[in-house]
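Quick start: read one record
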Amino acid sequence: MKIPIYASVIILMFLLPKSLIAQALGYNNNRIAISADGNNQADFHPEARWPRADPDDWGGTPVALSLIAKLSKQDKLVHFSYNNFIAAPKHTSETNYMADGVNGAITRWNYDASRFFDVPENPETAIKHLASEISKSTAQDPLYFIHMGPSEFFYLSIKHVIENGNIEALNHVYVISHSGYNDNHLRRKSHHTMNQAIILSENRIKYKKIKDQNACNIPDKLWCSGTNFTPFHWMRDHNDEGIQWLYSRLHFHPDKRGADVSDAGMVYYLLLGDEDGNLTKLKSLFNNGILEKKKVEEKNGLLVFEAERFNIKGKWKLGFHSSASSGKFIYYDGANAYEKPDVKNKISYTFKINTPGNYTVKWVMRQPKDERGTDKGNDAYVYLSDDIGFAGSHNLTQYEKFYGRSQNDFVLNGVAEVKTDHKWLTAKFKKPGEYTINLIGRSHGLQIDRIVMFKDLTLEQVESQIKEITETSK
């Protein structure tokens, strides 16, 4: 619930390289604390202006946590409280969207769960924990506080610090806000504003209000596009499951206005020194995912990579099952395309070969449940860039059918079909370097777990080796 203002945006190519070395308010790998609202359990107290919080935190919190993880500062986040309406009820009959988002981030990006607090569950514990982190603050170890909810929670923590004789620590506390609503909203008449918290500190706290991070009517600026999810579609189509998950967190707003992660703009400002952050810049920052994986490389004549490394888009989707490597696989959810390839459903991945030679190309695949053992849901179109693919004597200069067959388990197989010939697929790598494999969906439901290439090894040896590893890298 913030008042939108419009802000100009500097062109990404000029701004982002500077941002990566610029951090705000003297931030230099210091401690971070965040407190957000997001309460969904209704608080019907007569003094509460609205019974629930603005649902923007349901998406903004996961994006904020993904930013911190992307910049490898999980250990610097020393406190995160959420659902921070003071005197509000616990979530007993409504979905706790904040807890779902927080727990998903903790699991995906290796946060310390002991630093996260659902405030209505135990307000006093959460308040004292933030107070303890504030009390540690010195000139050499300042605390940067991101203000994502009403001020009363922060005020009570400041009061606790002072009552325990640690008022001088407040000289080294920096507060970042972007919302007059959060600064001034009172859930009860007895509650306090941010200005009152600063006065309580005897003006020791350093306060910075950046520009409002909303520009919902101008989707290419800042962090909000209201009901228009188009600026967020890159999240939906990304091959990083965590980024796809971010997109899924936007779709719980009761008025379908979940395309708003504006509070994450404060984290972007703190860590990158840019209060004109936006979704285009975030896309660039997240290009290689949140927690970047090592580049896949061939090792000792074997190359293995997980299918979710493909740039998943079009009708390709990410699936989950315990029998897949790392519990994930991709599947083709489009209509059968037996007549010709549809490039809208093309996915690609580039890998590195260190030892040149002729490599057999296979995949670890499975057919959809009702079609296992049949000729349905079992094939895709394949093409190895630069015409390096061969099926027998046939040089693959275009996309050709590649198929397998399975029962209940993912299995290593794969045969190329060119005209009426059925041959194993070979990639001829003439020199070390990077190469690209491309797939296009052909039959609905096909599931792919991994891609495997090998030379000077038998199929049985490869089957044994890939049981011990998920991917190959140097």
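The first strand starts at residue 31 and ends at 36.
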